Amino acid sequence: MAHSGAEPPSIAYKVFTFEDNKKNRQESLSVSIPEVLDPQYGMYVWPCAVVLAQYLWTQREALKDKTVLELGAGVSLPGVVAARCGAKVILSDSARTPVCLENCRRSCAANGLHDVEVLGLTWGEVSPDLVLLPELDVILGSDVFYEPQDFEDVLVTVAFLLRKNPRARFWTTYQERSADWSIEALLHRWSLTCVDIQLEEFGADRSELAASTLPGNHSVQMMMVTLRTEDVGL
Q1: Exposure winner among 66, 131, 195, 217, fewest CB in 10 A?
Q2: Is 141 exposed, middle or buried (0-12, 13-18, 19+ CB in 10 A)?
Q3: Please, what's the largest Cα pairwise distance for the chain?
């Protein structure tokens, strides 16, 4: 039964610890993510989120002072990691799911992040909040390609943002849940291009990341989406 709002949600906090063992010192980052124990799938940490967060951890030096937007943030693990790495982060989820937006705020509070803005942005809709976003450097999306009927709406939003921010990049992780899964035609339609990022390049080709049991045996992929070169004003 879905949570009706009459009772407080049942929340469990899960800690993720990212580490980097260098020759002279060991660096680590721990974040606490609240999961709401009800049937809404956006309220849990999914395998794709841990893989994307691992990539952000390896890019922490480059992320400092960059402006980052997470789409479909849910429990917001990637966005929280980016913020803890020094990025200026905006978390977003559907304007139609206030419970998810509340969990974004809960994730920020659990990690002492008081300057992170949370916005309701619905994929495929050009809302005033979308238009008024500041200049972006990075857009994040963890498992946003989940329901095939949403694929084009996601890319409509991404294409709009990349046209406003032609130097920005969309970093996204996804699971291939069907052999028919493909966004190639949609990328072409919206003048976008992508490159795959191999998980072994950032230490994510393992079944356990960040001191967790995720991603487990799930097959997670990562890609970087940009405007086609001819559409970028060089």
Answers
A1: 217
A2: buried
A3: 55
Dihedral pair phi/psi, residue 21, rounded to 5°? -90, 105
On whether the CB atoms of residues 166 and 231 are closer than 8 A, the answer is yes
User: In this structure, which amino acid lies at residue 129?
Assistant: D
Q: Which residues contact 204 (CB under 8 A, 6 or more apart)?
A: 51, 54, 55, 215, 220, 222
- Tokens for 231, please give them: 């559409």
pTM (whole model) above 0.90: yes
Q: One-letter amino acid identity for 125?
A: E
Which residue from 20, 71, 76, 70 is spatially nearest to 46, judged by alpha carbons? 76
pLDDT digits 0-9 by tens, 82-136: 999 999 999 999 999 998 999 999 999 999 999 999 999 999 999 999 999 999 9
Hey, which bits of 151-234 come out as E strands? 169-175, 192-196, 220-227
> Phi/psi at 33 (nearest 5 deg)?
-120, 120
The dihedrals phi and psi of 61, each to the nearest 5 degrees, come to -65, -40
Residue 209, CA atoms < 13 Å, CB-side half-sphere: 29
Q: Count Cβ atoms within 10 A of the Cβ of residue 27 and give its class: 0-12 exposed, 13-18 middle, 19 or more buried.
A: exposed
